[in-house]
Write a structure and sequence with these properties.
The complex is a heterodimer of chains A (116) and B (106). Chain A is an all-beta fold and 116 residues long. Chain A has no helices and eleven strands. Chain B is mostly beta strands and 106 residues long. In chain B, strands 2, 4, 5, 9, 10 and 11 form a six-stranded mixed β-sheet that branches. A five-stranded antiparallel β-sheet of chain B has the order 1-3-8-7-6, with no helix packed on it. The chains are: A mainly beta (116), B mainly beta (106). At the A-B interface, strand 5, strand 9 and strand 10 of A face strand 5 and strand 10 of B.
């Protein structure tokens, strides 16, 4: 049973370019969460999605960041016009159930974004 | 939102020693998870423990929800236990503690 998959594992972008991060949840999971981890810090929640719906995006910057989880295919976190401060590890997690009966979340290996 | 505090922030042990890591949360929670982030950055699920005690090999965890804390016990530590241990409250916006960085020396 494959776990949560993320790609790419490493991504290098120059300032002003776009970054697209992909996440395929575990089989049978329909709830996806994105987190950001800055160096030497804990994980910070960004956004929670179900298929075709954004449930909670309270942790996501209002500008340049967007997320989707289409009916078919992986969830995508998109960062437009990247800046050096966007350099971080971005983790995706998935769960069987979300609101209101939150259960265990399982994490992917992360995408390490470096902005030059 | 819920605040999650972990202690100690850093811990250095000799191989074979035991340790207790603590997680305090500011409000009642329905669920709690413990993770190990290894030196390669991977997050590994250790326990999903809203209340009570669970054991898995050398690791065990106890959550006392009414008193708003959880404890992670590591016995007979090994160098492969090194890394950062996080507790977190699964919710819409899962809140992570800042972590305990554990270094186990041979």
């Amino acid at each position: 049973n494959a776990g949560v998959m993320q790609n790419p594992r490493h991504l290098v972008r120059r300032r002003g370019q776009e970054a697209r991060l992909r996440c395929s949840p575990m089989k049978g999971h329909s709830h996806v969460y994105w987190y950001r981890q800055l160096p030497e810090e804990g994980l910070k929640f960004m956004v929670y999605l179900q298929k075709e719906n954004i449930i909670d995006e309270s942790g996501m910057p209002k500008e340049r960041f967007s997320a989707e989880f289409p009916k078919e295919g992986p969830s995508i976190l998109r960062i437009q016009q990247v800046v050096r401060g966007d350099s971080a590890a971005y983790f995706c997690a998935s769960s069987t159930f979300g609101a209101p009966s939150y259960n265990e979340q399982f994490f992917g290996p992360g995408t390490r974004l470096t902005v030059l | 939102g819920i605040q999650v505090e972990q202690s100690p922030p850093d811990l250095i042990l000799q191989e074979g020693a035991n340790s207790t890591l603590r997680c305090n949360f500011s409000d009642s929670v329905n669920n709690l998870q413990w993770f190990h982030q290894n030196p390669w950055g991977q997050l590994i699920n250790l326990f999903y423990i809203p209340s009570g005690t669970k054991q898995n090999g050398r690791l065990s965890a106890t959550t006392v929800a009414t008193e708003r804390y959880s404890l992670l016990y590591i016995s007979s530590s090994q160098t492969t236990d090194s890394g950062v241990y996080f507790c977190a409250t699964p919710n819409n916006d899962m809140r992570f503690g800042a972590g305990t960085r554990l270094t186990v020396k041979p």
